[in-house]
């Protein structure tokens, strides 16, 4: 069995009542965003195929897929995922590896189709449903999640729906005082019944601000404090100093594209407590699994970045992952979670749990009518 065709269907999404402030997603009743997306299909000569639906950083992902497709993917046995992964990882070493994830996930989906087994089964996964937390859009000034009371009300609603935790993203205009006030309101309303988390998303520009917010989280018993520094967590010395000052665990490395190799360095120097990993951005299921097992070897936890079927299957096989991230959520807007798929695979049940799809491969079907209706481009690479 050999790969003889790679196909990329480009399209755009429709995120109604959603806008951006400084590139950060917020509720906006007067705006509809149309970010780019794509479906990558890898196909063999006998017609077996695997798919990946892309929703983030589409232009560099597609460009990098094209960079490695002919030399490192076409003509290969699709079941040799790790060998293909290693070759693509090296080939894209100058360009942050964003093309590796889509290729790897599509190959896992193809392998599931070939073996008539779910990716969870291929990974040895043992969970059919996943504990899940609600992850919000950023603080807005438009009447959505626009302050402490709105966040507390929404967290209470999420608690009633069965979510195990609640995380919000800070004010995009860099307002540590607002973020602290929201944290206090959340702790007061639901803190004894839900895990609470703050994702500063690299907003804070000074160490003093990051420390002030972190000390507030210590007082409020938050589950974790995520990516406070404006440099994206690259400065291990700065993060190590903050980790030593605070009791709240630091969740880091979301914005650092060094894979399991850089993760090992950060853990060895105690520059983070917990690690954020992504099948989408960190080299697919193979890359994220490498990261998770590296973190496990240090006796620590990994948390997967946002959702998607790949993360459902991967988390089913991870001992050291606490929650599935369901986001981005808001009172009045609908993010692009399920667009591009048939049905709504990323939905919680009445107990707030996320079900792992049970069909072959990723267990989801592409909504080709949606893709065709919103098509913006098409590429076929044959060999």
TrEMBL record:
Which SMART domains does the record associate with it?
A: MR_MLE (SM00922)
Spans traversing the lipid bilayer: none
The organism's superkingdom is given as: Archaea
Q: In which pathway does it act?
A: Carbohydrate acid metabolism; D-glucarate degradation; 2,5-dioxopentanoate from D-glucarate: step 1/2
Its Gene Ontology molecular function terms?
glucarate dehydratase activity
**Reactions mediated catalytically:** D-glucarate = 5-dehydro-4-deoxy-D-glucarate + H2O
Which InterPro entries does the record match to this protein? DgoD-like (IPR034593), Enolase-like_C_sf (IPR036849), Enolase-like_N (IPR029017), Enolase_C-like (IPR029065), Mandelate_racemase_C (IPR013342), Mandelate_racemase_N_dom (IPR013341)
SUPFAM superfamilies recorded = Enolase C-terminal domain-like, Enolase N-terminal domain-like
Q: Name one Pfam family in it.
A: MR_MLE_C
Name of the featured protein: glucarate dehydratase
């Amino acid at each position: 069995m050999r790969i003889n065709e790679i196909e990329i269907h480009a399209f755009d999404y429709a995120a109604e009542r959603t806008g951006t402030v400084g590139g950060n997603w917020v509720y906006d009743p007067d705006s509809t965003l149309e970010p780019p997306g794509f479906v990558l299909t890898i196909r063999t000569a006998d017609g077996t195929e695997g798919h990946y639906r892309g929703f983030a950083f589409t232009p560099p992902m597609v460009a990098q897929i094209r960079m490695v497709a002919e030399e490192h993917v076409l003509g290969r046995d699709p079941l040799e995922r790790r060998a293909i992964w290693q070759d693509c990882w090296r080939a894209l070493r100058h360009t942050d590896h964003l093309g590796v994830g889509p290729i790897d996930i599509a190959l896992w989906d193809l392998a599931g189709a070939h073996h008539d087994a779910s990716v969870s089964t291929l990974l040895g996964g043992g969970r059919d449903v996943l504990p899940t937390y609600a992850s919000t859009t950023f603080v807005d000034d438009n009447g959505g999640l626009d302050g402490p009371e709105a966040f507390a009300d929404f967290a209470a609603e999420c608690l009633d729906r069965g979510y195990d935790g609640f995380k919000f993203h800070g004010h995009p205009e860099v307002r540590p005082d607002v973020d602290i006030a929201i944290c206090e309101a959340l702790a007061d309303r639901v803190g004894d019944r839900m895990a609470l988390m703050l994702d500063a998303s690299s907003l804070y520009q000074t160490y003093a601000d990051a420390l002030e917010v972190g000390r507030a989280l210590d007082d409020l018993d938050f589950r974790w404090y995520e990516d406070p520094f404006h440099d994206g967590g690259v400065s291990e010395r700065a993060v190590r100093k903050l980790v030593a000052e605070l009791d709240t665990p630091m969740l880091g490395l979301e914005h650092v594209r060094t894979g399991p190799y850089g993760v090992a360095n950060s853990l060895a120097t105690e520059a983070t407590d917990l690690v954020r990993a992504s099948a989408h951005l960190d080299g697919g299921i193979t890359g994220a699994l490498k990261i998770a097992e590296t973190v496990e070897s240090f006796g620590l936890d990994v948390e997967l970045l946002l959702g998607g079927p790949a993360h459902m299957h991967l988390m089913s096989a991870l001992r050291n992952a606490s929650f599935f991230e369901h986001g981005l959520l808001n009172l009045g807007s609908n993010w692009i979670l399920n667009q591009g798929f048939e049905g709504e695979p990323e939905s919680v049940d009445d107990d707030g749990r996320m079900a792992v799809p049970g069909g072959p491969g990723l267990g989801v079907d592409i909504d080709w009518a949606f893709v065709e209706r919103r098509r913006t481009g098409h590429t076929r690479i044959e060999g």
